[in-house]
Please model this.
Amino acid sequence: MTDRSPFKTAVVAVVAFWILVFVLLPNLLVLAASVLARDEVRFIRPGFTLAHYRALMSTEILGIFVRSIAYAAGTTAICLAVGYPFAFLLARSSARSCC
Amino acid sequence: MLVVIPFWTSSLVRTYALIIVLKANGLINTLLLETGLIQQPLPLLYSNTAVFIGLVYTLLPFMILPLYAAMEKFDPALMEAGYDLGASRLQVLRHILLPVTLPGIIAGATMVFLPALGLFYVPDLLGGARSMLLGNLIKNQFLAARNWPLGAAASMTLTLLMGLLLWAYFVSVRRYGDPREALTR
Model:
């Protein structure tokens, strides 16, 4: 852990670069787009506004949020109910047959 | 092994395959009609049921793998000891198996819940007009409605929501992280 080989530095640099360019930057662009004004032709134009976040508060979109969370929770519950016994059997059976 | 085989094909392709299974003259309906169990084909496709089937089908491996990892490390002798001490099956499940595999449950629930919030192609392909989820909303705002800022605002909110849940997950890992601690309670 103490020595800083060039290989280690290179690997870390590549991964850091990758995250910066393909994860952080796009997210910052989305964040920027979310507070800019809408433009029919060029999609966005300069001008700070929080109107789009206010627009999310409409009952229609709020309903979609609630439904999404309900669907995700339901999916998780079903997966747990199905997966738990299955994983148990899988762990038990492979422990007995293998090694 | 059985669990990772689905990963060999793209989940998008598998979702299209589900359409063939669920549609009005698809596998399930043909089977049920031929055996005379139903007279009319069930309206399976383009319903909320289909969305649920698709989501569970797509995400089930992500639940099973962490659970399996947690249970493989679990020593079955602990359950034997529980039985020897006079515990019923339910008590063994409640006081031994569940606490020990709690990290696996939390990991699995996170790995299913978070993607389920954002998956857009499953409700897109299997759901009807009324089963629009967040992923579809964002996709539609960007591609169909051409309202980029609203879509961006929605996806930022979703990102924030997921970030909060991940934070809760890390807190719970710090709390329930060591399975052996859970045993002593």
Q: What stands out?
A: The interface with chain B takes residues 27, 30-31, 33-38, 40, 43-44, 49, 52-53, 55-56, 61, 64-65, 67-69, 71-76, 78-80, 82-84, 86-88, 90-92, 94-95 of chain A (CB under 8 Å).
